[in-house]
Design brief:
The chain is of the alpha/beta class. Helix content is 37%, strand content 17%. The chain has twelve helices and twelve strands. It starts with 5 loop residues before the first helix and ends with a helix. InterPro entries: Met_Synth_C/arc, UROD/MetE-like_sf. One of its GO terms (biological process) is methionine biosynthetic process. Keywords: Methyltransferase, Transferase. This is 5-methyltetrahydropteroyltriglutamate--homocysteine methyltransferase.
Length: 372
């Protein structure tokens, strides 16, 4: 039997055993980033170390049985701020305070919109090219924040935008540009990461919506537009998925609640190829909202394995939950992954690398048993 080509592999993405993208940073990389910050090494010296550690990471992902490999977001401090600040008109900056995550506070960093948002070039295109060149027989998967994250996390410090719609006009055009540039660089498997949808999942989130001068129905339409129009021009041979997150910093979270209140939009209104969904504990609610999936070509990646702690889940219970989910969406449209990345920021979750790789192998082994 001949091996599948990379393009044939991509058509099978998302994979039955998949992952969200970020991995714990090796101590050598953490030290190098600190040395660069202190002026002890140059940017070129840091990049060389990043390159070496990413090469090791890709091999470890393959050894664990993954068919899609990422760069672990090893060149980033944040899963979203670093990327968004690569657009014209968006600036990374120091803030007065960090963000509270269930009692744990992040560093005081943020992004602000200081002018018209546009794509002229983006430094992370080179990050993808490096991954593409070392992926070998695996699929190079790249992860970027959803366009909704600039609305959700960015501060508007310009009068160039009079309405949310005008803001999204430029934001969508910028995303169309960067997605095409990634495609031209060889990217065929792209994942959008989005915590903004969690606003609809709880009363606290709905209060945030009201504080922004909007209402849930209007905001859901805006978020839907942001996703669908950003990916509207994607080529047919490019797979684009989205991971919906409730926060992931140092093994904590920022929001709770099930998918029900936004389920018709998320499961019935987004033109994505797949959805990575958190279902690792009671905070995410039940599988009933999946009933709104009507498309036979929309894949659901169940995040049933937690990335927040090292203990391995009972494999039989995970298989039972996959069976439960298959009451609402066919089994052949279901995949399995950790509920989030292992290091949404460079600090990483509170587990060690050996536990991280045991989790990944756990996903692969369970998937092999379920989808024989």
């Amino acid at each position: 039997m001949t091996a599948l080509t990379t393009q044939e592999l991509v058509t099978n993405a998302p994979f039955k055993a998949d992952h969200v993208g970020s991995f714990l940073r090796p101590e050598r990389l953490k030290q190098a980033r600190l040395q660069k910050e202190n002026g002890e090494i140059t940017a070129d010296e840091l990049r060389k170390i990043e390159d070496e550690e990413i090469i090791k990471l890709v091999e470890k992902q393959k050894e664990a049985g993954l068919k899609a490999v990422t760069d672990g977001e090893f060149r980033r401090a944040w899963w979203h701020l670093d990327f968004l600040s690569g657009f014209d008109g968006v600036l990374f900056h120091e803030t007065n305070d960090g963000i509270q995550f269930n009692g744990v506070k992040t560093r005081a960093h943020g992004i602000k919109v200081t002018g018209k948002i546009a794509f002229s070039d983006h430094y992370m295109i080179d990050h993808y090219k490096f991954l593409h060149n070392i992926a070998g027989d695996a699929v190079a998967k790249f992860t970027i924040p959803s366009p909704n994250m600039l609305y959700f996390r960015g501060t508007l410090e310009t009068d160039v935008y009079r309405t949310h719609e005008e803001f999204y006009d430029d934001l969508i055009a910028a995303y169309q540009g960067v997605i095409q540039a990634l495609y031209d660089a060889g990217c065929r498997y792209l994942q959008l990461d989005d915590t903004a949808w969690s606003l609809f999942f709880s009363e606290k989130g709905r209060e945030q919506i009201a504080n922004r001068g909007s209402d849930p129905a209007t905001l859901a339409q805006l978020f839907q537009r942001g996703i669908n129009e950003a990916i509207a021009n994607k080529p047919d041979d490019m797979i684009i998925t989205m991971h919906i997150c409730r926060g992931n910093f140092r093994s904590t979270y920022s929001s709770t609640g099930g998918y029900e209140d936004a389920s018709k939009t998320i499961f019935g209104g987004l033109n994505l190829d797949g959805l990575f969904l958190e279902f690792d504990d009671d905070r995410s609610g039940g599988f009933e909202p999946l009933r709104h999936i009507k498309r036979p070509d929309l894949y659901v990646v169940l995040g049933l394995i937690t990335s927040k702690k090292g203990a391995l889940e009972d494999p039989e219970r995970i298989k039972e939950r996959i069976t439960e989910a298959s009451q609402y969406v066919p089994l052949d449209q279901i995949c399995l992954s950790p509920q989030c990345g292992f290091a949404s920021t460079e600090e990483g979750n509170v587990l060690i690398e050996e536990e991280q790789w045991a989790k990944v192998r756990h996903v692969v082994n369970i998937a092999q048993d379920v989808w024989k």
